[in-house]
Every structure is written in structure tokens, then in C-alpha cells.
Design goal:
Distance between the termini: 28 Å
Largest sheet: 17 strands, mixed
Number of helices: 5
CATH class of the largest domain: Alpha Beta
CATH architecture of the largest domain: Roll
Strand content: 35-45%
Order of helices and strands: EEHHEEHEEEEEEHEEEHEEEE
Number of strands: 17
Number of domains: 2
Helix content: 10-25%
Radius of gyration: 19 Å
Length: about 325
């Protein structure tokens, strides 16, 4: 048998979070970004075993808990998916907040328990509602988020001119109104959204170099978020779908994506401090989002967003690979 890896499966708004609880080799000490690089270079076969078929699927998502580096962190995490390792994941943070309280990693305190989670993008502070010792809804305040490029335009082959923004919410996203691509939520197939979003992502990657003031490892376009265009503040929920990594579809509203949208909205005067919006996913699940306060990120005016949702448990498992099982190393059917 290969290494035996134990996991606890959760989901946040329908988006999976496979939390590794045992079985990974020791990861050398260092910063979280150094750990991310080490895992990518030396342990990627385990990501493929856990994320890919036959144990996972094309849209699986995972979280690997590692030794923390930042002072004050209660836990540290590396995020994994079909392409590699992301820098921030809000839906996983929501799940890990509840998990940390339920597992006693952080002692439960009513009515709210604070869990400091070190992510590759920096420290993220989760607030876990606790009642009768049981963890419930979770919200988090992430790293400074900002609008990187406003009202840009590219031409997509066969689709014409597309207007978009680029915003950072722990990861960089292109943000675009789906209607200009001829798409409508509830009418068109998810596959149509994926194709359009992927085309925009690849074009923006080629034509718009990114920069992050903290570290060059953060300066990459993670994906595209297609919205219903309802950015101006109202009491009506706004819908979006996030297509990230290698055309992976987020079933949740996307925590880092909601953060990026809030940063863009605030920069455009479309939402104020402490105004709450409801963000709805492709499967109908919802996160709340608000601008908690303003700050800076290098030369950028930035915000601290507050995003909230619910996570639920799905099960537990142990995974391994028999020595003669080549398909058991992991594969994807595209």
C-alpha cells in the first residue's frame, strides 16, 4: 500500500472541502509560502490522489493543515484543487472555522469564538458562532482587498468586446457582467459560463500582468467571476459564478471572490461601510458580504471585507493506493 491519508469531508454552500487529518509526511519549517512551494514540488502526488478520480473529481477542493509560522495563528492551511495550490479560499476558511472549534483546536467560547487562520495570502480571522457548545455560522475578515484594474476591455474571439475589472480578494479575479457574453443565470448551461469565463481568464492572463505589493507568488490570475451585473447596492441578492484554476466551478458564492467583488464595488462607490449584500451561487447557496473598514495595500486603497456562510460535514475516509494500481495515482476525465 501507498501512504494512508485520512480526511474529513465538509462542504460550504455545496462546495467541497476535503480536510487532511493524517497521513502527510512532515513538511519542513518555514513561511507558509515556502511550505506551499515544498508541497507543490515534493508532495504533489498526494494532491492528485486526493483531488482526482477515483477518490475525488474534477471540481474537488482540499485543505492541508500545516504548522503555523505567523505569531498568533491557531492553525495554518494550504489549499489544493485540480490545478495546484491557491493562496486564499473563503469557503474553506468557513469550514475550517467550524472544524477548529468542533475538534477543540480552539476552545469554544460563547457567543463567538475567534479562530486565526494563517493562509498563503496572510492571516484570516474567522468568527464562529457558538451556542450550547456547538459551532454554527462562520464569518471571516480576510487580508486587504483592492481593485487592481478598473473598466478594462478585451476582445474575445467569437464573443466580441468584453468589459471587466480585476480585483484582489486574497487571489486575483477578472470580474465581468455575464450579460455582455449573451449569458443569463437560470437559462444557460453551466458549461456555457465555464467556456466564457475560461476564455476571459486566458486572455487576461496574456494581456494584463499583475503585481501584488506583498509577494510575487500572489501575483497570478486565479480565475474569472461572471456576475448578473447587479453591483450597485440594493436589498436584492446578486448572483455570480466563479470559474477558477483549471476551469473548476465553485458551487459556493466563493469567499475570496465575494471579497474581490466587494473591493471593486467599494472602489466604484457602489457600497458603503457596513452595508450588507447577499451573494448567491450557481446552485443557490448564499454568503453575506460587507465592507468592514478601509485600509491600504501598498499603493492601493483597499478594504477589509467581512464574509459569512455555513459549512456542514459529509463524512470521513481513509485513502490509499495499491502498488499495482496506476489509475489510483489519480486521473481526470475532461
Amino acid at each position: 500500500m501507498s501512504e494512508v491519508v485520512a480526511v474529513t469531508d465538509m462542504h460550504t454552500g455545496g462546495e467541497p472541502v476535503r480536510i487532511v487529518t493524517a497521513g502527510y509526511p512532515r513538511i519542513p519549517a518555514g513561511t507558509i509560502l515556502q511550505k506551499r512551494a515544498y508541497v507543490r514540488q515534493n508532495l504533489d502526488h498526494l494532491r492528485k490522489m486526493l483531488m482526482f478520480e477515483p477518490r475525488g473529481h474534477y471540481d474537488m477542493y482540499g485543505a492541508l493543515l500545516v504548522e503555523s509560522y505567523l505569531p498568533g495563528a491557531d492553525l495554518a492551511v494550504l489549499f489544493m484543487h485540480n490545478e495546484g495550490y491557491s493562496t486564499m479560499c473563503g469557503h474553506a476558511v468557513i469550514a475550517l472555522g467550524r472544524y477548529a472549534v468542533d475538534q477543540g483546536i480552539v476552545p469554544a467560547r460563547e457567543p463567538v469564538t475567534t479562530v486565526n487562520i494563517e493562509c498563503p495570502c496572510g492571516m484570516v480571522v474567522a468568527s464562529v458562532e457558538v451556542r450550547n457548545g456547538k459551532a454554527g455560522a462562520v464569518s471571516f475578515e480576510s487580508v486587504p482587498a483592492f481593485l487592481f484594474a478598473r473598466e478594462q476591455r478585451v476582445e474575445l474571439p467569437g464573443r466580441g468586446l468584453v468589459d471587466f475589472d480585476i480585483a484582489y480578494g486574497g487571489a486575483f479575479y477578472a470580474l465581468a457582467d455575464c450579460r455582455q457574453l449573451g449569458l443569463e443565470f437560470g437559462r444557460d448551461r453551466v458549461r456555457d459560463f465555464v467556456d466564457a469565463a475560461s476564455a476571459l481568464t486566458e486572455t487576461v492572463k496574456r494581456e494584463f500582468p499583475l503585481f501584488h505589493p506583498d509577494h510575487e507568488d500572489l501575483a497570478f490570475l486565479y480565475g474569472t467571476i461572471l456576475t448578473d451585473g447587479k453591483d450597485a447596492f440594493s436589498d436584492e441578492p446578486t448572483k455570480n459564478v466563479c470559474v477558477f484554476a483549471d476551469a473548476e466551478v465553485d458551487r459556493s458564492p466563493t469567499g475570496s471572490g465575494v471579497t474581490a467583488r466587494l473591493a471593486a464595488m467599494h472602489a466604484k462607490g457602489q457600497i458603503g461601510i457596513d452595508q450588507t449584500r447577499v451573494f448567491e451561487s450557481i446552485v443557490g447557496s448564499r454568503f453575506t458580504g460587507a465592507v468592514a473598514r478601509t485600509t491600504t495595500a501598498g499603493a492601493h486603497e483597499a478594504i477589509i471585507a467581512r464574509v459569512g456562510g455555513h459549512a456542514h460535514y459529509c463524512g470521513k475516509a481513509e485513502f490509499f493506493r495499491e502498488e499495482d494500481d496506476e489509475l489510483g495515482r489519480g486521473f481526470l476525465v475532461v
